[in-house]
Every structure is written in C-alpha cells, then in structure tokens.
Design goal:
Shape: globular
Distance between the termini: 44 Å
Radius of gyration: 19 Å
Number of helices: 7
Order of helices and strands: EEHHHEHHEEHH
Length: 161
C-alpha cells in the first residue's frame, strides 16, 4: 500500500488545489443540510447574501458574481420572489434589465441562513485558531484576486461550438 497523509494517498494530500476543492465541496454539502429546514438551497442563500448587502442588483450582475448562466439566475430569483423574499422591477434606465431587492421577510430569512452558514464554517474550520483562519482567508483572497479581476472584465457570452 502507498504512503498516506491525513488519511489520503500522499499524491492527493500534497495537492493544495485538490484539498481546497474538497473543502469547498464539504462546506457546500454541510450548508445544504443546514439550509434545508429553511427551505433554501446554497444558491438561494448566496442570492440573499448579495441582496442583503446591496440596495438593488440586476439579475445579470448577480449571475456574473456567482458565475452562473443568466437563465439559472432567473430561476433562482423566480423561486425567491414566489416566496416573497425578494422583489424584481424593471430598471427605469434600461427596460431590458430587472433590478432585484431583498424584502423584509427575505432579510429575516437571510439572517437565519447566515447563522446556519456561520455554524457550518465554525464546524469545518474548527481545527484552526482565529489567527490561522485569518491567514487562510487572506491567502485565498490573494490567490483569487487575478481570477476575480478577470471575471469582472470578461464578456459574458456562451462559447461558440
């Protein structure tokens, strides 16, 4: 049997990207479980999180931030709007755009969902000290800076096949 580290074959344990990917997957799975009683999925929570910290956002802007196809964003907003958690209105400056804002009910549910997300984060990152967690957060932010900068300038077009 090959060498192992942290319960994984050394070839996987030594791949930082693999470990980060699986950490993200684990966080998402745990958060899905915690959000289920609130009737939310992770993507719904992320939309509420964006709206909770903004006056309004367009569906296009939110799709860009989440790196989702705009048609998926329409469905997410449809779901939230049907539950009275957000409101959508035509942008008076551009009738093709919809501006979306969170409702009071949506803000309340977002607070409860954020508490669930914080509990999951505390569970997953529990082995780290506060200082270690700050270092990890800053380091990931630095790694992701060029990616996010590229996402902000890249046109949102479907690839030509």
């Amino acid at each position: 049997m090959g060498s192992t580290r942290d319960g994984l074959p050394e070839g996987l344990a030594s791949l930082t990207g693999f470990q980060l990917s699986k950490c993200g997957w684990w966080l998402e799975q745990r958060l899905e479980e915690e959000l289920r009683p609130l009737g939310l999925r992770v993507r719904h929570f992320l939309v509420l999180a964006m709206l909770g910290s903004s006056d309004t956002l367009s569906q296009q802007e939110m799709a860009g931030y989440l790196l989702l196809d705009p048609t998926l964003m329409v469905g997410l907003v449809d779901d939230l709007e049907a539950r009275g958690l957000c409101e959508r209105a035509r942008d008076p400056k551009d009738r093709r755009r919809y501006s979306v804002r969170i409702t009071e009910e949506g803000a309340g549910l977002h607070r409860r969902a954020r508490e669930a997300a914080d509990r999951v984060g505390a569970e997953v990152f529990g082995p780290l000290s506060d200082d270690e967690l700050r270092v990890v957060t800053r380091a990931i932010g630095r790694v992701m800076e060029p990616f996010w900068a590229e996402q902000m300038v890249r046109p949102r077009r479907k690839p030509v096949r």
